[in-house]
Request: fold
Amino acid sequence: MEYVSCDYCGCAESGVVARQTDLLHRTTDEVFSIVRCAGCGLHYTNPRPGPDEIGRYYATDYAFHASPPAWRRWADRALDIWANSPLAGLARVLSPVARRLAARVRPMVGDPVLEYYRSGREGTFLDIGCGSGWHAHYWGGQSAVLALRKRAAVAGVEVSDAARASLSESGVRCWATLAAVPDSEIFGLIRMNWSLEHVHAPNAYFSFMASHLKPGGRAIIAVPNYDGLIYRLAPDCVELPVHLYHFRPKDILAYGARHGLRGISVTTFSYPEMFRAAAAAGLWPSAFSSCSGIVAAKEMLRTLAPFDQAGWGNDMVVVLEKSLPPGAVSGSA
Ligand SMILES: [Zn+2]
Reply:
């Protein structure tokens, strides 16, 4: 275990705001603390497993490193579309199907990667934490590295040897760490999907993005939102100890501003399944574990919408842009 100072401001003083063990993956009974920096307000896990220890706190099936068969990818996509269509209610008569669809009910959140390229912007895409390149978390297969090859040159950073080898076979350049990416590599777009909360030193990632983006290039950062409804009501409803940082929108914007990356947009969003899964794990009131039907999930989604708009969604995606040099015309980069 290591005790650390604040990654953002260096302050060593902090106060405990929550304590919890690993109720989600059951890798340990140890109890961990989330602290709030007395200097800047950043929330982080402290003490925490160091870089050499963190591996044993990840469940063996934690990440999407495998390459799924084609039929599985199409079935996933079909279920997602059905769950979020007006026809989802038809599944009520088949309760096992309805439960599976309910878990997939979620708000439409525009994909900032597709929006970037559809708007005519250019530049190589770098996905930090790209897995095997088949899946882009919330945005599914169509925004994954392998699918994006038809829009732009792509590259990845991925710690898993197997996933990197599989991407190399597909002709995708992929490095194991940020330090392995050559200084000469400049990107138009860099994405981090639900990975920044896992790293030991977030500041180094912002520094990397600032130095590897072209002027006018963008960074897309998706992470849990510690300003979100579920964390406001239950600050200990957190994936510990593998989440080392618990960012609010203002934290991501402050990191960006320090490195010359200005905020373009902050979108927060929630989906019903997170509340049900948290209840099932014992992190959230058990009354929510019965919210598993398709009708209940749709109703809950409508209830959550104003919280999302208020910035209280449980997840967020923040888009940052590297400033153009003085005198340059916006959009010409
Ligand atoms: Zn601080």
